[in-house]
Description:
By secondary structure, the protein is an alpha+beta fold. The protein has one domain (13-96). Helix content is 30%, strand content 26%. It has one helix and two strands. The chain has a two-stranded antiparallel sheet with strand order 1-2. Strand 1 (26-37) and strand 2 (40-54) form a beta hairpin. The protein is flat. This is Flagellar basal body rod protein FlgB.
Amino acid sequence: xxRFFSGVHYMPLTSVQYSNETGAGKWLxxxxxxxxxxxxxxxxxxxxxxxxxxxxxxxxxxxxxxxxAEELQAKLQALNKLIEVNVSRMCxxxxxxxxxxxx
Length: 103
């Protein structure tokens, strides 16, 4: 069996929308390498010149209908925003700490 990958694209889960509907898709640039810092993926580098059309979404539970689905989606988006803000603050604290070793 031949195993290889043609490239990588970093997509934080907090950027993935909630929807049960098929979207138009989005073209993503494919890069050659993952960039990591302190064991955490922070992005990608070295473009391959290739792109990939993807439709990425979290689908809401099947039994969530009408206003229940809208309420669940709003709560999930609020949770994602809270996580994103906390991660951003944590990264800022690490980068501005005098004990932090910058590479």
